[in-house]
Amino acid sequence: MGRLPKYINLSAYDGHAVKTLVGYIQNDDQRSITLSFYALADLIDLSRSLLMLGLLEQLEHILVEIASQKTDYLIQALIIVGSERSIFGGITARQKIERIAATKFQDIVQHKLFGHIPPIIFANVISRCDLNVEKEINVVDAAIVWIWQQEKSLISSALVFSRIRSAFLSHGDRNSIRERLRTLPNGEKLRISFSFKLFFFFVI
């Protein structure tokens, strides 16, 4: 049987997150503690890594509550649940926060940090049946705005456009989308990819 380490190096984590974790272990009163979103993300990661499931459940509940309050907070929550460590860790709050984002989609599209929403999270949100949009073309418009702000636009575009519901697009919508895609980085590749997706959909 392996030995437990005497020490754990937590230097890579936010100091306030580590301090809060220690306080939790020592049963300190932490009702007045204020954490940044960065510290909260680290604390969630720590509680998951150390299998402190009670603390993790509390933190995820707090994250969902915060996300429902203001668009600023919702964007930050989407960034947290879309980080690699949260995606691979299987954060249970993700779907709840994505549901909030779907309801407040019009607000997050207008937010200055809209482009910072991680690709997989944005793709999940726009594919939801409860997405708050009038027409599917509105989703495409939002997607193009989001794609413009991505470093890996081609990869991100492939993911996002795989979630667009082609059945809800009119013939005019499809032609308009092809023209808009030309304006994007790697626009011609995107246009061809989108056209193939439409062809495949209608053949099936």
Automatic annotation (TrEMBL):
- InterPro entries, sorted: BACK
A Pfam match is BACK
Domain (BACK) spans 94-171
**Know the name of this protein?**
BACK domain-containing protein
